[in-house]
Sequence to fold (214 residues):
Amino acid sequence: MDIQRQFPNVHWIWGGGISFVYEVHPRIVVKVPKSGEFAREQFQKELEIYQVFSQNPPCPSIVQCFLFSSSGIFLEYMRVKGHLLIYLLDISLSSRIQKNHTRDQQTMVVTTVEKLEPLLLRKEWMNDLAQAVAFLESIKLAHGDLRPENILLDRNRLKLSDFDCTAKIGTNYEACMAPYGRILNNNESDQGECGTFGFLGPRTEQFALGSLYY
Fold:
């Protein structure tokens, strides 16, 4: 990859739908866009959100950004119990949940819940996530893609990440994945077009929060 040829000491650690993530320091990663028009458009959307964040006091329940430009976004390197782990791959809420489950390898249906996280810790996570969503709402934004894969754990503190689908409240809700959204019926025309997920806002964010809490 180009960045590794230019900077040999930078280590690739993860690749997502629109970006690659590299370790540039034991406590810092940089997120860079993949090639392709769509990836760059989504990356630009995320840059615009970080621009908004930079104009407001930081929220402790959102992954900290140190610096951003059209070439990359420098973020805190998430850790668990003081040990550096692979950004997003091993420390998302999704992977934490999966490690506590046994699945049928053919159907991928959960057959056994091997472990529950301590109740006090789950309550802290719920509070952290609510704090992050409330912060976004306070600056007229909705995350738009609330799901376990976009929630990271830092020494058991929960932090929200990935803002390429984040948009102003009232924007069409387009990035929804079941069960984190609900299709509107014909009695909810004020919330958007019937058969769609409607407009982003408290209704959509609260529904996603409820699914995450469950």
About this structure: The two ends are 40 Å apart (CA to CA). The first strand starts at residue 11 and ends at 15.
